[in-house]
Amino acid sequence: xxxxxxxxxxxxxxxxxxxxxxxxxxxxxxxxxxxxxxxxxxxxxxxxxxxxxxxxxxxxxxxxxxxxxxxxxxxxxxxxxxxxxxxxxxxxxxxxxxxxxxxxxxxxxxxxxxxxxxxx
Length: 120
Fold this sequence. Notes:
Layout (H helix, E strand, L loop, with lengths): L10 H11 L10 H4 L2 E3 L1 H4 L5 H13 L6 E3 L21 H21 L6
Parallel strand pairs: 1-2
C-alpha cells in the first residue's frame, strides 16, 4: 500500500488541493444517467450487504421493469473502508458478478436502444 500524508492550514485548503489531484471528466455523461434512477443497496440494506442480496435486488429491479442507469453497491462490500477489492466472505463468487454485470450492461444497452438513447 502506498499513501501520502498531507497537512494543511484549514479544511477548505485541504479540499481544494485534493480536488485538484482528481481527473476531471472528459465529456458530459450520457443523458440517461440523469434521467433514470441510480439504485443503491444502501436504500434497502444499509451495511447488511452480500452477494446474494445484490443479485436479488438487481433481479427485482429488472423483473419489475423499473428504469435504472446505475446499480451502486454501497458500504461494506470491501473488507475495510477504502479497499478496492470485494470482501471474499460476503462476495465469495465475485467473478459471478462480472457476468451478471455484463447482463446488466446488455440490458441497459437494449433498453437505451428501445428508448432511442445513445450508449456511446
